[in-house]
Design brief:
CATH topology of one domain: Glucose Permease (Domain IIA)
CATH class of one domain: Mainly Beta
Structural class: alpha+beta
Order of helices and strands: HEEHHHHHHEEEEEEEEEEEEHH
Number of strands: 14
CATH superfamily of one domain: Glucose Permease (Domain IIA)
CATH architecture of one domain: Distorted Sandwich
Low-confidence stretches: none
Helix content: 40-55%
């Protein structure tokens, strides 16, 4: 076998290294012979090899131990650095929380001071509401105590604003009913009108919801309040003529041409030719032209199906699609169409059905006050659709 032959060859070479050796020594004229056998040489060489091997093992062990100690020291230093860095980061975050908290407090104070006049007497004397959730958060996470306090103030603020919105909504509903109109119908068409745009989720990932439903109730209350006050602000209550006497009322009358009984769907105002005709409320001009027996006519669409009609004009100063504000001149009094003299025929219609304009023009002071408050928010420019 080649391997066995190689082993035998190595053995023979090794045996050749350790052969019996004789040394001659001369001392004082005498010659001595010293013989060192091959076996002794092998034993001495083996012992030396063992000593060297042990020394190498001890040296290697010491080196490994030194490396281990150095590594542990390095690891400890790194851990200390990480702990110090983490402590600095926590400190920085706490400083950031304090800064954000102070900003939020200032903002909340500003909001409360700005809205205090709007809240009214019905909420001004409310006792402070204790927020148990804020207390629990403060106890569990002391660093978040200030933020929890602000959250509690915001919840109280939301509840008071909800009460205010509901109170104003109730006043608007009463005023709208005084005109013979349905508040739900008036608000319903406005709540979802004029809205649109692409859908972009506010939160990334799974949908999230505000945990406290009081904020949802506030949003709903303000949305309905805005819808009703916006509708109330567009109800036609202003006089449509700069001057004039009422010459014919709404309802049954004798026709001025035939004398037969007829239905008069509006109110007539008598005044000199050229008297200014004014929009009874803000709205969009949806007709401007000649219309049979009405003569030269302007129609203004306000909100939620309400339309005012101004007929028998000598001329008009608006065009189709134009937006006009309350009290803005839209034409001049005349006697065009089926007319016996200079006057204005004024109509109010809801979904094409004629209504008595006196309900709108002779509204009581409380209703007009509510409308004035609503109109202060929806001015001529702001009430555009």
């Amino acid at each position: 076998m080649p391997i066995l032959n190689k082993l035998a060859d190595y053995r023979n070479r090794l045996a050749g290294w350790f052969v019996d050796r004789e040394f001659f020594m001369r001392s004082n004229g005498q010659i001595r012979f010293i013989k060192i056998s091959g076996q002794l040489q092998r034993r001495v060489a083996g012992g030396f090899a063992v000593v060297v091997g042990l020394w190498l093992m001890v040296t290697a062990g010491m080196a490994v131990n030194q490396i281990s100690i150095s590594f542990e020291r390095m690891t400890l230093v790194q851990k200390e650095a990480k702990v110090q860095s983490a402590a600095q980061r926590v400190s920085a975050y706490r400083d950031s929380i304090d800064e954000v908290t102070n900003d939020l407090k200032r903002r909340q104070d500003m909001l409360e001071s700005m809205t205090a006049p709007l809240l009214g007497k019905e909420t001004a004397n409310d006792a402070p509401v204790k927020n148990e959730t804020a207390k629990k958060i403060s106890a569990a996470i002391p660093e978040a105590a200030a933020l929890a306090e602000i959250e509690g103030r915001q919840i109280i603020f939301a509840e008071r604003m909800t009460k205010m919105a509901k109170a104003r909504t109730a006043r608007a509903e009463i005023a709208i009913r005084q005109f013979g109109l349905n508040p739900d119908a008036m608000a319903g068409s406005h709540l979802r009108s004029g809205l649109g745009g692409p859908f972009i989720p506010f939160f990334s990932g799974p949908p999230k919801k505000i945990s406290d439903p009081r904020f949802d109730r506030l949003a709903d209350a303000i949305e309905r309040m805005n819808a009703l006050e916006n509708a109330l602000a567009r109800v036609p209550t202003s006089m449509p003529a700069a001057a004039g006497l009422r010459s014919s009322g709404y309802g049954y009358r004798r026709d001025p041409f035939t004398g037969a009984g007829a239905m008069h769907s509006g109110i007539d105002f008598k005044a000199p030719l050229g008297t200014a005709i004014l929009a009874a409320a803000g709205g969009k001009v949806t007709y401007a032209g000649y219309q049979g027996g009405y003569g030269k006519t302007v129609e203004v669409t306000h909100a939620n199906g309400l339309i005012t009609r101004y007929a028998h004009l000598s001329d008009y100063s608006v065009s189709l699609g134009e937006w006009v504000g309350r009290g803005i001149q839209i034409g001049r009094m005349g006697s065009t169409g089926r007319s016996t003299g200079s006057h204005l025929h004024f109509e109010v219609r809801l979904n094409s059905r004629a209504m008595n304009p006196l309900k709108f023009l002779e509204a009581n002071s409380n209703v007009l006050k509510s409308q004035t408050l609503a109109g202060a928010k929806y001015s001529t420019s702001a009430e555009r659709p």
